[in-house]
Amino acid sequence: MNIRDLEYFQRLALEKNYSKVADFYHVSQPTITYAIKRLETELNVNLVNRNQAHKNITLTNAGRQFLLHVNSILRELRIAKQEMTHFSAKKLPLGLPPIIGNYYFPKLSSKLLQTDILPHLVIQREGSENLLRQIKLGRLDVGLIGSLDTITTDILQSEVLTKKKFKIVVAPTHPLATKKNIAFADLAKENFLLLSEQYVHHRAFTRLIQASNTDPKVIYQSDDLAILKGMIKSGIGIGFLAELAISSDDNLIAIDLADANQPQFLISLLYRNNSISTPIIAELLTLIRQIVVEDENKKLNNLR
């Protein structure tokens, strides 16, 4: 059984037509026909229904079952190839969403330099959903991912490192600026400035809308956090941000939500289950855990 025959079979299941598969791979139609026959001979089952009355082929029950295995085999092969490029290139891809990266990477970078990991690191900055997909596909070794719920999957190790609150963010001159906390339902008449749908914030905002049975007005959405903060500061509207997205340099007021069972911003360390943990990856995971713990301890000490 060879890989090319499996690829032909997978494509045939999609196209349902020998000629289309042949055109896709730039080979003759008999090449595809013989490949399917080889698989059937080796497996001793019919994989496709051969009915000349119909232009398109269909899979037998055995063929549909075999397709599940073929999909898994070819997916793992693609992931293996991706992982091997990481070894040969001596580079370590790390996925960091913009907000999480902006907050933690400056704290992490000095430790990475001391351990000689920094020169090998390739940072990929995207939304958490995209980065999660890249880790599953083997294109990233490690990611620090934001979510509203614990990430559970058979192929990944997931560790929730910390949980952050979402805050209502206003300009110092805004009428709400003196409040210590506020219920989301009391913000129904406010104009909101939000991060775009690629951010976890959008789903958290939707959950609060559903829980409070309100429909606040969203007047603008942006992928650019700096632009959004500038608009909030100018008083155009109010924001909804995870607490780690706000710093003292922003000159903005962050207000706690008073709602019970409000969504939290979970920050998880993710890496593939079946990846061999090289010394550099093991050291990177240790350093990430360390800086998150140090940050949490520092905040606790400041509250005392």
UniProtKB/TrEMBL annotation:
SUPFAM superfamilies: Periplasmic binding protein-like II, Winged helix' DNA-binding domain. GO terms for cellular component: cytosol. The keyword Transcription applies. Residues 1-58 form the HTH lysR-type domain. Keywords: DNA-binding, Transcription, Transcription regulation. InterPro entries: HTH-type_LysR_regulators, LysR_HTH_N, LysR_subst-bd, WH-like_DNA-bd_sf, WH_DNA-bd_sf. Pfam families: HTH_1, LysR_substrate. PANTHER family: HTH-TYPE TRANSCRIPTIONAL REGULATOR YBHD. This is LysR family transcriptional regulator. It comes from Enterococcus saigonensis. The lineage of its organism: Bacteria, Bacillati, Bacillota, Bacilli, Lactobacillales.
